[in-house]
Amino acid sequence: MLRASNIPYSAIYCNGKPFIILVLITALYHLLFSARDSQVVATILGFNLTEGGIGMAVSFSLRVLVFIGLAFFITLTT
Predict the structure, then answer these.
(1) Residues 70, 16: contact at Cβ < 8 Å?
(2) Is the pLDDT of residue 37 over 70?
(3) Are the CB atoms for 16 and 72 separated by under 8 Å?
(4) Which one is predicted more confidently, 78 or 49?
(5) Is the dihedral of CA 8, 14, 19, 20 positive or negative?
């Protein structure tokens, strides 16, 4: 939708930079603290990264990105 709306990529990038931090925090939280009952993939600094945690990190991060994209689409086209 953002590509079809002819919004310049520079506007999307400038408006989206603060939200990238939010997405990274969301992903990090789910990587470290979610899905403790699934198989351990790796251990980093004493934290177990699990298959379920990786899946949840990806799904929740993508969900946040979709919400941000929709908000950009609405606010930058009206």
Answers:
(1) no
(2) yes
(3) yes
(4) 49
(5) positive
- How far apart (Å, rounded) are the C-alpha atoms in residues 11 and 74? 14
Q: How far is CA 57 from CA 17, 33, 46, 71, in A?
A: 19, 10, 18, 21
The CA-based diameter of the chain, rounded to the nearest angstrom, is 48
CA distance linking residue 52 with residue 55, whole number of Å = 5
27-55 in b/e form (b: 16+ CB < 10 A) is: beebbbebbeeeeeeeeeeeebbbebbbe
Angle in degrees, CA 52, 58, 59, rounded to 5: 85
Helix (H, G, I), strand (E, B) or coil at 66: helix
